[in-house]
UniProtKB/TrEMBL annotation:
UniProt organism field: Pseudomonas batumici
Superkingdom of source: Bacteria
Protein name: tRNA-uridine aminocarboxypropyltransferase
One Pfam family in the UniProt entry: DTW
Lineage of the species this protein comes from: Bacteria, Pseudomonadati, Pseudomonadota, Gammaproteobacteria, Pseudomonadales
Segments passing through the bilayer: none
GO BP, sorted A to Z: tRNA processing
Signal peptide residue numbers: none
Family according to the record: Belongs to the TDD superfamily. DTWD2 family.
SMART domains: DTW
Top-level EC class: transferase
Documented EC number(s): 2.5.1.25
GO MF terms held by the record: tRNA-uridine aminocarboxypropyltransferase activity
Keywords for the protein's UniProt record, in alphabetical order: S-adenosyl-L-methionine, Transferase, tRNA processing
Keyword Cell cycle part of the UniProt annotation: no
Length: 207
């Protein structure tokens, strides 16, 4: 028999993380487009981000027929957080009259699934792209990053918002993410974790 799940965070009820999810305001609007394969993933960080931000929306699917409506937000400029040769690094908002806040569109899935979302939604692929600054290190200690600077979805959103809306802090969004990781470490045992994960962890300045 399957375990009863919290209807909000989708975690098993005895491991519900809702108490750790903040409710933060942001000038930026975040639109998360989640591939269906991520919905039941143990580390569904896109959902944590959507629940923790008042100005965010999470949509699940492969083809988003209402994408034109989702992108038409008066007072915002839509940009896709996804790498490309012509992607522009995110920068803090200025006080200039024409500097509109972003509608930051964030695909959620493996790199392969995220690219599929772009392929199936040409309007999404046509958006101007932005990227994060270099040097980010993921806190997801249970998985080796596929490449330097690779982050979970919620980590990427936190870094993006803290860049755009400096000096505001959005670190509270990471609380359920970090609690989930700590719970997984406790479940496997500290000794097993240290033996199988920490020995392969690269040195980070300031550790």
């Amino acid at each position: 028999m399957s375990r009863v799940r919290c209807e909000r965070c989708l975690r098993p009820e005895n491991h519900c993380l809702c108490a750790l999810i903040p409710q933060l305001d942001s000038r930026t609007r975040v639109l998360l487009l989640q591939h269906p394969s991520e919905v039941n993933h143990a580390l569904n960080t896109a959902r944590f981000a959507a629940l923790g931000l008042a100005n965010a929306e999470l949509r699940v699917g492969e083809v988003f027929e209402d994408l034109p409506r989702l992108l038409e937000r008066p007072g915002y400029q839509a940009k896709l957080l996804f790498p490309a040769d012509d992607a522009q690094p995110l920068q803090a908002y200025t006080a200039a009259p024409g500097d509109l806040p972003l509608l930051l569109v964030v695909p959620d899935g493996t790199w392969r699934k995220a690219r599929k979302l772009l392929y199936l939604n040409p309007l999404l692929a046509a958006l101007p792209r932005v990227t994060l600054g270099e040097g980010a290190v993921s806190r997801y200690r249970l998985r080796k990053a596929p490449e330097a600077g690779a982050l979970s979805t919620v980590e990427a959103i936190v870094q993006a918002l803290e860049t755009l809306e400096a000096p505001a802090s959005f670190a509270a969004l990471l609380r359920p993410f970090e609690a989930l990781i700590e719970g997984q470490i406790r479940a496997m045992g500290e000794e097993t974790f240290l033996r199988n994960h920490e020995k392969n962890r690269p040195a980070v300045p300031g550790d």
